[in-house]
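Standup notes
- DV: blocked on the single-chain target, sequence here:
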Amino acid sequence: MNNIERAKEIVKRLWSQTDLDSIDDLVSQDVAIKSPVKSGKGSSTLSEVVLYWQKAFPDVTSQWLSADEVKPGTVVVNWKAQGTHSGDAFFDVEMTNRTVEYSGKTTYLFEDGKLSAYEANVDIDNILQQLKPTHQLMR
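- DV (later): unblocked, structure below
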């Protein structure tokens, strides 16, 4: 399995299937996580990041736009996602039932066949803007 396939497997099992029981098969014990939601070390941090998004946007789906191994062991994925805010609060915004569309870039660093670092870049302000109520003109 090459590193792009490893990144796809992580997305499939953790993000699409929310199979957090398999996380230790995919990532190193001290994986470094940097996300707008949470940063830290360890597979539990990555689990918390996945659950945060899944609980706020239970129907979230994503699509890869591009994936490149920019240097040995480093995969950069550009993606877009869509989901309905029909679950938990997201950055202190209670459920809105609004559908949001957003894009981002995730960098995966692999060592010895496992994820050793994960960095997600997402425009949270864009998402929060989409969650704001639309104001209707008064007549």
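- Follow-up: The chain has a mean pLDDT of 94.
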